[in-house]
Hints:
Layout: H1 36-93, H2 98-113, H3 116-119, H4 149-155, H5 157-169
Amino acid sequence: ESPPYQIHLNDDVFHSSSRPSSPYLTANTTLLPTTPDLIKLHSQHSTLGYRAAISVSKNKYIQIGFDRGYEFGGKVGLVVGWVRGVAEGLVHVAAGGEREREMKGMLKELEMELAVEKVLGREWIDEEGMWKWNIGTWDRDQDEEGVDLDLVVQSHPVIRKWVNKVTEMA
Length: 170
């Protein structure tokens, strides 16, 4: 009588979960190393394989992510720095008057809203480093086609708000 499955020449090399690879083992049999030497060898190979995969992955993806994030973060920092500089200038221009208190209050609010961890936080940037807002320029929306990082930064809702606000006050 023949078994309900066929035995293939390479069953001992290429395991298939659809049928047992041995007439003595069932599909549910777990093959784990049982002797101390095999357990140690299995552990060493697993560790080396894991380390090799992490090493290859780091070399391949970390630099790409850094390059993208560095340019974007630099452009955000440039605009946020400009906004803050204009706001601080407005505080100094209004020194000594009622307007100075108003400007200092505005500057505190601006500093909280334009903090790096807020502007580039999970509310605005997803896990893959992509922005979550619509793209446009200071004064109009734009199609996704032809978008560059300057447009992305200009379109950030919080940055756009403060650029408009300090421009109006200046």
